[in-house]
Amino acid sequence: MWRRTPTLALALLLGALLAAGCATDPPGPRYARNADGGDRPVTLTVGVFGSFGLKEAGLYDTYMRLRPDIAVRQTSIERNENYYPQLLTHLVTGSGLADVQAVEVGNIAEVVATQGHRLEDLGAVPGVDRRAFLPWKWAQGTGRDGRTVALGTDIGPQAVCYRKDLFARAGLPTGREAVGRLWAGDWRRFLAVGRRFAERTPDRAAFTDSASGVLAAVVSSGRLRFYDERGTLVVGTNPAVREAWDIAASFARDGLTARLQQFTPGWDQGFANGAFATVACPAWMLGYIQDKAGPAGRGRWDVAAAPRPGNWGGSFLVVPKAGRHRTEAARLAAWLTAPAQQARVFALRGSFPSASAAHALPAVAAARHPYFGDAPVGAIFTAAARGVPKAPVGPKEGLVAQHLSDVGMLQVDQTGRDPAEAWAAALKSIDNALDR
Fold this sequence. Notes:
This protein is of the alpha/beta class. The protein has helices at residues 6-20, 59-66, 80-93, 105-115, 135-140, 164-169, 176-183, 187-200, 211-220, 239-253, 265-273, 285-293, 326-336, 339-349, 362-365, 377-387, 397-415, 419-433; strands spanning 42-49, 70-77, 100-104, 151-163, 206-208, 276-282, 301-305, 311-318, 352-353.
């Protein structure tokens, strides 16, 4: 995972904390007592999936130093597809829950709509200010009854990460501003650049990693994706999704991809081997690239603006009403998602803040990434975040995206399946998965 030099990181972090003022001070009484009347610390559990970043950035340790009456313990399940079904089951039964639970953005609409009555209203917690968050992120955690049951942790504003050495070999610009101008405003221009790259570098690295990655990036930049404002599934009738499909399929049929499946060992190895020149790159992927490309990739990778702003990823924290320490859990969730803490996670882990108030803090605004040629990642991703369209998120957003990618586009990319046949197969698979 990435970090700036220790001295700069410390200076920017201190500036962020000072700018945030009392946001670093947990609200509530200095000491709490257990339900049995004892004076031992109250233990709060936080349930997450994967490497969520809160523990890794040291937030729990900081909170426990500020609140010696509270002990924080984290439990983690590696993959969200295993974590989320368990979370739903525990919410319905009211047992087996952590005091604070994480929810991935692809599941948030379902949680808010079907489980919101089982969750605390975090918008009413002292110190929580909706104006500190991006409006569309706040809206995703708010139900029709006006209760905000989920507070955003991070978002995934998109850029394009690219290999400067491979661009130079193809006679393309290598400076990040010039590269961004190559495809500014239109994903079809990104396709055109890919064709130029392939013409000039035959039998060398592919232009991009995968058609599925292109599909996800183009879809995420639309104002309407898989669901409309009423929560109706429109994936098969939305022309923007079909356009994204056609663009991604063109990448596959023109041989512009490395034909890899994202988040597999082969994809990881592709970073290390220089198998592709570009990848759609939300903020959280910077650390992933650095890890997989290793020391040999340092200075070769850079970051440019995407053709159009979009958001890929992001998560929330919720507090189940079934918990024993709901008030303290809500205070912890509010503190973890406060701007100063979100800025700290970005500085140490690369997760971009969903709290817009954090974007002006030095730890975000002045952030540069030495691995990526000292790219001004704070400015790049802040600009992308400002342009993210406010698109409806449906109850099965993640499942729909998975079937479009794995059942549909992956087959076009890796087996040469006809795009029209793969489109029909993906829609049928979605219908079956949703019992339609």
